[in-house]
């Protein structure tokens, strides 16, 4: 039979035994000193009230107890005493009490006032020792009985009333001390074990915290290393697409240029994501430094707003810039603050529908400059607002996500604003809109000097930011031979508004001039415009292609175009691919249309079979367009 052994519980109990031995050893030492002081001192009382024939016996009694106390001073230091500390301390106090009982026999027995000495011994035990229930009951009961029975049987009682009174008071004292010691033992043991458990827990937490810090440091190094490693192949991709789009190897046809532009666009987007991750890593390690200079915040922000206006207008959103500032001068890092503002404008554009408005407002006073981005979009709830600036949090967290993103932008924006010594707050109301307000202090005293480089020469206001970046890129090109750094710098100006472009882009599939010559139509239900465009490029040679951004729109187009094939993504807003397939397969007039399901989720084929509405074919993301086109032709018998 196996025995389960709780090591932690054993360690706790062992520690308590050590603590108990230390407490009782200290108590015994104090008790010994008190006995060695009071036992001889009360000899004066013997001299004053005791019969003369009893004085020698009383003196011998006191001498023996003091001698025993001297021995105990040595004995309490031994391992034997520590091992049986409760037993030996109880025996010592019993002997001290027995000495007083011996003297009581010469002083009138049960009616003697010397019974008060036993009360002192009992009270001293209660104050000085931490005894368990058994030891406390045995010791004080034995002391009381030792006082009662020998004196009751062997010695006459000169004053019966005094004897009864003494007995009641001594019995009451013993009861009080026993109960007090029992509760004190339980309280002290519970407190000690709780504190010890907390101490163990703290040590474990400290060790776990230390390990987490090591893991966090490793994670930061890993992120830094992997992002740098990703930049090398990415730089080669971007440089190659740049050569091709500049017609370095011959003129490209329109059909060839479109996919290469998609590669470049998403390469730049990936580069921006890598840079965001690098900045987050640097912020965690406190190694990211601002390059601050005194600039005209009004001119800087108005220039930026003018640049992004055309992008917002593509979605039908009006952009308004307002300024109430009289003093436009402010110290800030233009590059970092631009990333913050562009991120806020990208979110506003993403969550604001056509005919909405985005207002960029500058205001403040002599101490602060405030920059607000106000939109008339979908807004957010109070609960969502509390988590907006958490890393990787998104208000659109459901399975059928309508809006993309990584959840890094607002978190990074908050940390960059706080690095400026400022704050960023958000206020929103569902279906009414959202307001994000950045507050920055004037002057330079609020900056952390270890995290900021303050440039004395202000930025030239007449030159747009791209010129500064282009100049930086050119200088770096002369100084650097590393292609990674060169292409990264070159792409920085290209990627400034990549998220804004994506948020405002509503062009999905451009109409082919000869598409009516195709005999069969393929309907693509996909909420990502870039995936739709990629599928269109692959299918346009063989099919007429129409597109819908969700399942609801796809159902409308099925009625209109009677497609030979439906290619649908699994996760889409409003109606996902699974629901779309269920609707199609349950309708007799549509259930013969083959459905090709695209998904990055494992197990979807089995899940749809169990639901009773399986698709005709499945393809996992990322997919080969060549394989997809081949499968599409097989499903449509082209």
Binned strand content: 5-15%
Radius of gyration: 44 Å
Instruction: State the helicity in percent bands.
Output: 55-70%
Q: Indicate the CATH class of the largest domain.
A: Alpha Beta
Q: Quick one: CATH superfamily of the largest domain?
A: Histidine kinase-like ATPase, C-terminal domain
The number of domains is: 3
Distance between the termini: 73 Å
The whole-number mean of residue pLDDT values reads: 82
State the major sheet.
5 strands, mixed
Form type: elongated
The tally of beta strands, per DSSP, is 13
- Spans of at least 5 consecutive residues whose pLDDT stays below 50 are 1-5, 397-401, 459-489
Strand order, largest beta sheet: 2-4-5-7-6
Helical stretch tally: 21
CATH-defined topology of the largest domain:
Heat Shock Protein 90
> Structural class of the helices, strands and pairings?
alpha/beta
CATH architecture of the largest domain: 2-Layer Sandwich
Q: How would you describe this structure to a colleague?
A:
- It is a single chain.
- The protein is α/β, with parallel strands linked by helices and 638 residues long.
- It has 3 domains: 7-204, no CATH class; 289-503, 2-Layer Sandwich (Heat Shock Protein 90), CATH 3.30.565.10; 515-636, 3-Layer(aba) Sandwich (Rossmann fold).
- The protein has 21 helices and 13 strands.
- The strands form 3 sheets. It has a 5-stranded mixed beta sheet. The chain has a 5-stranded parallel beta sheet with strand order 10-9-11-12-13, with helices on both faces. Strands 3-1-8 form a 3-stranded mixed beta sheet.
- α8 packs across α15 (483-494) and α10 (297-313) runs parallel beside α16 (498-504).
- The longest helix has 86 residues, at 160-245.
- Mean pLDDT is 82; it is low at 1-5, 397-401 and 459-489.
């Amino acid at each position: 039979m196996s025995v389960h052994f709780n090591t932690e519980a054993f360690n706790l109990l062992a520690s308590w035994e050590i603590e108990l031995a230390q407490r009782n050893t200290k108590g015994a030492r104090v008790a010994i000193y008190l006995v060695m002081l009071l036992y001889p001192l009360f000899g004066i009382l013997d001299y004053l009230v005791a019969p003369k024939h009893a004085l020698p016996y009383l003196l011998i009694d006191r001498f023996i107890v003091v001698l025993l106390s001297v021995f105990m001073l040595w004995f309490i230091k031994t391992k034997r005493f520590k091992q049986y500390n409760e037993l030996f301390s109880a025996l010592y106090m019993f002997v001290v009490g027995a000495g007083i009982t011996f003297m009581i026999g010469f002083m009138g027995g049960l009616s003697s006032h010397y019974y008060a000495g036993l009360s002192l011994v009992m009270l001293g035990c209660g104050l000085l020792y931490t005894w368990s229930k058994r030891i406390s009951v045995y010791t004080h009961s034995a002391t009381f009985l030792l006082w009662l029975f020998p004196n009751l049987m062997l010695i006459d009682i000169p004053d019966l009333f005094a004897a009864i009174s003494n007995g009641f008071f001594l019995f009451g004292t013993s009861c009080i001390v026993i109960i007090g010691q029992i509760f004190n033992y339980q309280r002290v043991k519970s407190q000690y074990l709780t504190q010890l458990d907390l101490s163990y827990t703290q040590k474990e937490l400290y060790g776990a915290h230390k390990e987490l810090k090591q893991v966090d440091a490793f994670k930061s190094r890993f992120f830094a290393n992997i992002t740098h490693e990703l930049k090398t192949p990415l730089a080669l991709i971007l440089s190659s697409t740049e050569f091709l789009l500049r017609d370095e190897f011959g003129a490209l046809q329109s059909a060839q240029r479109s996919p290469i532009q998609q590669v470049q666009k998403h390469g730049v987007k990936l580069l921006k994501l890598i840079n965001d991750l690098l900045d987050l890593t640097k912020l965690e390690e406190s190694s990211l430094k601002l390059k601050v200079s005194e600039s005209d915040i009004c001119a800087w922000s108005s220039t930026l707003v003018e640049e992004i206006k055309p992008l917002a207008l593509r979605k039908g959103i009006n952009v308004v810039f307002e300024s109430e500032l009289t003093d436009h001068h402010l110290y800030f890092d233009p590059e970092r603050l631009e990333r913050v503002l562009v991120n806020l404008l990208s979110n506003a554009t993403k969550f604001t529908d056509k005919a909405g408005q985005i207002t960029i407002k500058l205001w403040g006073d002599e101490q602060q400059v405030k920059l607000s981005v106000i939109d008339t979009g979908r807004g957010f709830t109070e609960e969502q607002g509390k988590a907006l600036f958490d890393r990787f949090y998104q208000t659109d967290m459901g399975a059928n996500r309508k809006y993309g993103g990584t959840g890094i932008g607002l978190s990074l924006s908050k940390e960059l604003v706080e690095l400026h010594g400022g704050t960023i707050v958000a206020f929103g109301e569902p279906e009414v809109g959202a307001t994000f307000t950045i507050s920055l202090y004037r002057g330079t005293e609020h900056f952390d000097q270890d995290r900021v480089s303050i440039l004395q020469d202000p930025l030239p206001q007449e030159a747009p930011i791209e010129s500064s970046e282009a100049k930086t890129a050119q200088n770096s090109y002369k100084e650097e031979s590393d292609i990674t750094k060169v292409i990264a710098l070159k792409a920085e100006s290209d990627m400034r508004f990549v998220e804004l472009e994506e948020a405002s882009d509503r062009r999905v599939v451009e109409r082919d001039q000869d598409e009516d010559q195709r005999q069969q139509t393929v309907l693509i239900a996909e909420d990502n415009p870039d995936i739709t465009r990629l599928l269109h490029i692959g299918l346009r040679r063989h099919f007429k292609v129409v597109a819908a951004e969700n399942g609801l729109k796809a159902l409308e187009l099925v009625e209109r175009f009677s497609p030979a094939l439906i290619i649908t993504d699994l996760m889409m807003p409003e109606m996902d691919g699974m629901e779309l397939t269920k609707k199609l397969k349950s309708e007799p007039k549509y259930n013969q249309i083959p459905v090709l399901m695209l998904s990055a989720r494992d197990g979807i084929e089995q899940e749809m079979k169990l639901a009773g509405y399986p698709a005709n074919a499945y393809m996992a993301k990322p997919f080969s367009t060549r394989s997809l086109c081949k499968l599409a032709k097989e499903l449509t018998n082209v």
